[in-house]
Each structure stands twice: as structure tokens, then as C-alpha cells.
Amino acid sequence: MSPLAVVALGGNALLRRGEPAEASHQQANVRDAAQAIAALHATHRLVITHGNGPQVGLLALQAEAYPDVRPYPLDVLGAETEGMIGYLLDQALLNELPAGSRVATLLTQTVVDPADPAFAVPSKPIGPVYEPEVGERLARERGWNVRPDGPHVRRVVASPQPIDIVEIETIRLLLDAGVLVVCAGGGGIPVVAKPGAGLAGVEAVVDKDLSAALLAEKLEADFLLMLTDVPAVEIGWGTPEARAIRSTTPEELRGMDFAAGSMGPKVEAACRFAELTGGSAGIGRLDQAAAILAGDAGTIVAGARYEGTRKPASPKSSSTPAASTAHQP
Predict the structure, then answer these.
(1) Number of structural domains, the chain?
(2) I want to staple 301 with a disulfide (CB 3.0 to 4.6 A). Which of 5, 111, 202, 270 is the partner?
(3) Distance of alpha carbon 224 from the chain centroid
């Protein structure tokens, strides 16, 4: 059986920095992503997940046009964006893959703990920015939490840890049937399990990279591939001494500091997957997906299964500098 790779597409796969959130731009970018994924299909079974931040923000803005309708909750907005982005990816993949290939998009619920400390300290920005007096009024009327964002304020919500994936067995069935699966978009639809009452959606956003790591762990994947718009994780990013980290281990990465709002979640996801499964994780540019999977590009975080090998990475030959500060977008 071919090895299994979970591929996590960053938001740039759909909407690049500075682009207007128009459907035509997203469709063009998705075609590029589908071409990169198609290059992996010949050698790997694939599960694709993706970001949805700009799309949820767009829906939140559109909701402001209906002041007499209460805004839809975040779990519903998450489901809407999973369906929309899944459709775009599904169609683009079918157009790029060999005839007879099978692709399925699955709405996916991610279970979080209602006692997660993140609910007490909302920190994930979402939606548009507001003038302070407008934001404070909306916070009172809608029960929101808002925080300063430059001269404005912005809504913030909880970002709890993902602990389970409701549809994991369905994903396994699809994989066993030879289907390429698109699932867990935007980290999945956040839900809690209520004893005796089933599942219920919550106002939260699950980090898409941590959700991808959990998905890869549950599926016993061989590789977690996180694709973004930078070629590799860098140490000393933004300084003259900046250097790409090509091959490393979770232990080495955990000795460094990465920006929580940018590369931090990807590094944490890579470390978790490598530590828990012994598999290998890669971080790098979308157009270098095949090279990253082969160990020839990006940053490779090698788990125990790759001890002593050169591809996808060799922890013993790591080129990671022994430094402690690394930030990048």
C-alpha cells in the first residue's frame, strides 16, 4: 500500500496576501494548489486539509449587511466555508488528476473540551476591525470579546486544543476505497460532546495546523506536509543572520522560539506529529510540495521512524543552528 500523506494547505493556497476575496482569485489559486497536489498523487495516498480564515472573515462582513439577523455562530460559518472551499478543491483536483480518480469532500467536526482554558481567555482574532465605540457596542449586544487591533478593535474567540475528530472512521473508509479525501477545513467544525445529549457546536476556532497534526496522528499517516508561502522555517528571521532550517528534530525545535501568530502553530504541529507517531513532517512552499515530500526542500522534522535515514530527513545530520529565536510570517 502506498504511504499516506496528510497535506495541510495554508490560507495562501486560496487567497494570497493583498488579494481581494473574489471567487475568481480563489479559483485560480486553487488550480495552482491542485497541480501541486496532483504531483504527489502518483506516489502517495492523500488527505487534504486547508485554512479558511479569510473566508470566515468575508462571511462575517457579509453578515453585517443584515442588521436585523443575528450573526450565524462560528460552527455554522466553519461548515459553510468547509463546503465552499471543499467544492473548489474537489473540482480542481478532479480536473488535474488522471481520469478515473476519486475525490470526496467531507464536512468534519473537531471535538474540543468545554473546560479548555482557551475558553476563559479568547485570543483568536476573527472578522473585520471596528472603530472602538462600535466594537464595544457589539460586544455588549452580542456577548463578544473584543481586543485592540492597532487604532481599532476586533472580535476574539477561543482557540481550544483539538482532541478528537468525529468523522475519522468515515475518512478511513474512504481512504481504504482509494478516495482522495478533502476534510477538516479550517481546523474542522468546533464541537463539544455533551454526556447524554450528543454533539453541539461552539463559538471557537480550532487551529488548522494542530487539527492537521491530530488528523495525521489518528490516520497513522507517514508524513504531515504543511504548505505555505515561505520556503522553510528560518532561524533569526528578519535579520542578516537568517538561515533556513532544513533538517531537524522535535527536540531541537522546542528549544527555539517561534511567533505564535505565524510559524509557531506549524512548528508545534510538526513536533507533535513526529513525537507521537515517529513519522516525519515538512513545512515549505506550495510549489515545492513534491520536493519537500522527497526531503529535498523545506524544513523536515524527522520522527523516530526516520532515525539514521537521509530522506525525508536525518536527525543526526541536522543543519539546525543552536539558537533560540525564530520568527517569521
Answers:
(1) 1
(2) 270
(3) 11
- Give the up-direction half-sphere exposure of residue 123: CA atoms within 13 A in the CB hemisphere: 11
The verdict on whether 311 is a catalytic residue reads no
For residues 246 and 180, what is the distance between their CA atoms, to the nearest angstrom?
29
Please identify which of the residues 29, 208, 284, 298 carries the catalytic annotation.
208
Q: Among the options 51, 52, 53, 124, which is catalytic? A: 124
Cα torsion 279, 267, 8, 241 to 10°: value is: -110
User: Which of 1, 2, 5 shows the shortest CA–CA distance to 290?
Assistant: 5
| Domain annotation covers residue 165 | no
Q: Does residue 238 fall inside a structural domain? A: yes
pLDDT per residue rounded down to tens, the chain (329 residues): 899 999 999 876 677 777 777 888 888 889 999 999 999 999 999 999 999 888 887 887 787 788 888 888 999 999 999 999 999 999 999 999 999 999 999 999 999 999 999 999 999 988 888 999 999 998 998 889 999 999 999 999 999 999 999 999 999 999 999 999 999 999 999 999 998 889 999 999 999 999 999 999 999 999 999 999 889 998 877 778 788 999 999 999 988 888 766 788 999 999 999 999 999 999 999 999 999 999 999 999 998 876 554 344 333 333 333 333 343 44
Q: Let me know if residue 139 belongs to a domain.
A: no
11 included as an active-site residue: yes
Q: Is 266 a catalytic residue?
A: yes
* From 266, 279, 282, 295, the catalytic residue: 266
From 12, 51, 127, 188, the catalytic residue: 12
Q: Grid coordinates standing for 263?
A: 510559524
Q: Establish if 240 belongs to a structural domain.
A: yes
- Both ends of the chain: CA-CA distance in Å? 36
Domain span at residue 264? 222-329
